[in-house]
């Protein structure tokens, strides 16, 4: 069989990292990324990019932990290399604070991030409305630079990238031997998945270079995440809202909530407002499927539905998707050699 041709649909963090994992693990494959939008016009560009996992209720915790561990290890290695600044990856220390002590004082990811410990009384004095807190060091991706870095790596490994809206995965069957669906919220229309829904998020990106530590309210709604150049202030979680227009009332509310946590933010400048739709599901859809029409088959691997945690687990899910692609190719090669006999 000639070099198998694989199309990856989607150029957010999931599509680009999946294409890279396929190119790395299957050097004989020809990989192409097809996407309606590329950076800076994806949901992934809007994200804060903090490595603090979201919990998927429908996925076993040990699987989520493995995805997070693999992603953390991958980005930690980048943060320790000369690529760190170009890739937009850096370590950041800070606090997650709670108004009441949470039921689960040790989240499943506490031994993956660095130096996880309860906050001291002296540290908690900074947050008079909060009674409990966790201090740790994690990683943050500055999302647009990270996406561009992934694109650069893909080009260097010979992956082609084209702007194209795919209306139906079947339309790719005559050009490709296999397809990977990384369409994020676009998968709802692309494969008719009604279990996938948007959770709208609005964030502010501000200039406040004196803010060096992250602060996250344990309810996950209010957060301050310093990046290399800008600080992300959040946020909102609006289920089933498809609006991509910034809401001025929400901007003021986010800013006020963040200033309550970190009063010095009143001096922040150059406020930019961004909105994105988290591709949400009970669990990430990471599985093989075979489409078939008139005796012709098209193997598909789905990798979408990462909701509020796509950056935190992207490398782990990309590796698993690449493994599934490898299985599809082995099955194709097996059937083509049987056909020759
Ligand atoms: P996307 O980035 O949306 O990419 C989907 C791609 O598919 C796009 O390129 C699109 O053009 C393409 N596409 C769609 N349909 C088609 C089609 N029919 N044909 C061709 N192409 C198609 N996660 C974290 O881990 N940490 C955080 O701190 C964090 N903060 C966030 C803050 C906000 C405000 C938001 C909105 C999200 C945040 N997230 C965070 C979540 C994270 O952004 C998502 O989980 C992640 O970006 C999903 O990536 P994706 O590649 O699946 O989707």
Automatic annotation (TrEMBL):
Similarity-based family: Belongs to the DAMOX/DASOX family.
Intracellular or extracellular location(s): Cytoplasm, Cytosol; Peroxisome matrix
Positions annotated to bind D-dopa: 223, 278
Chief subcellular location: cytoplasm
Position of the signal peptide: 1-19
The species this protein was found in: Ciconia maguari
Protein name: D-aspartate oxidase
EC number: 1.4.3.1
Positions bound to FAD: 43-44, 166
A Pfam family this chain is assigned to: DAO
Listed GO CC annotations: cytosol; peroxisomal matrix
GO molecular function: D-aspartate oxidase activity; FAD binding
Catalytic activity: D-aspartate + O2 + H2O = oxaloacetate + H2O2 + NH4(+); D-glutamate + O2 + H2O = 2-oxoglutarate + H2O2 + NH4(+)
Keywords from the UniProt entry: Cytoplasm, FAD, Flavoprotein, Oxidoreductase, Peroxisome, Signal
Domain FAD dependent oxidoreductase residues, every copy: 5-324
GO BP terms: D-amino acid catabolic process; L-aspartate catabolic process
Entry function: Selectively catalyzes the oxidative deamination of acidic amino acids. Suppresses the level of D-aspartate in the brain, an amino acid that can act as an agonist for glutamate receptors. Protects the organism from the toxicity of D-amino acids. May also function in the intestine.
Cofactor: FAD
InterPro entries: D-amino_acid_oxidase_CS, DAO, FAD-dep_OxRdtase
